[in-house]
Amino acid sequence: MTPHITNSSEEARKGDVVSNSKDKGWFYSDIVKEHFFHPQNFMEDEAAYEDSAMGMVGSPACGDAMRVWIVVDPATEKITDMKWKTFGCGSAIASTSILSVMATENGGLTLSQARALRPQDIMERLGGLPARKVHCSVLGDKALRSAINDWYRRAGRHEDVQVEAGRIIDKILKITDHDIEEAVLDGATTLEAVQQKIKVGTGDTTCIPEVEQLIRFYREKYFGADSKK
User: Fold this and answer.
1) Boundary-marking domain end, from 162, 191, 217
2) Of 62, 68, 71, 92, which residue is the catalytic one?
3) pTM above 0.85, yes or no
4) Which of 47, 126, 166, 205 could form a cystine bridge with 178, CB 3.0-4.6 A?
5) Is 13 a member of any domain?
6) Confidence check: pLDDT of 194 > 90
7) Catalytic: 62?
């Protein structure tokens, strides 16, 4: 069955990427649609693919999981090829597809450049995502960094392996206290709002009490007591 993406009023109630046109409500950008219907660099045959490294983040049990394979030129440390598989929604597919293009275009990013990619970069290239779909792009950059760490491990360069900034709170999605802090700073001051941005606690429900405690802490730290929005 062909996937369906719509600009209808029903979709308008579900998303929050806003069209500049007054006759349209909420919508997926044309770039998201293109990479959903025509994904780039999708992994077709794992057994035949000779990768330099592989990274994964997420879990199918919580709705989104991404696995990426990269080929790296050891002389330049540039990513010359990237393949991927994603278990998730249309936004997850589009996000991983555009990420693979970003990593390999114009001769490829160096590993240090690829490490610097952030969700905002992915969303900008996609022309925006509905807020409830932002977590799809958050997974992509972490999966790529996981693959970069794997490349350094295989090369015996363990000193170049970098752990995610902050303390990991959600062990399935590898979401850290720093991720939660950034979500609060971006205006998400309730558990529901934070989960819409980064999906923390949807796979590892045992971490929710700690997530709620961190939200309260960062909310009071930056916005003062009783600042719940």
Assistant:
1) 162
2) 62
3) no
4) 166
5) no
6) yes
7) yes
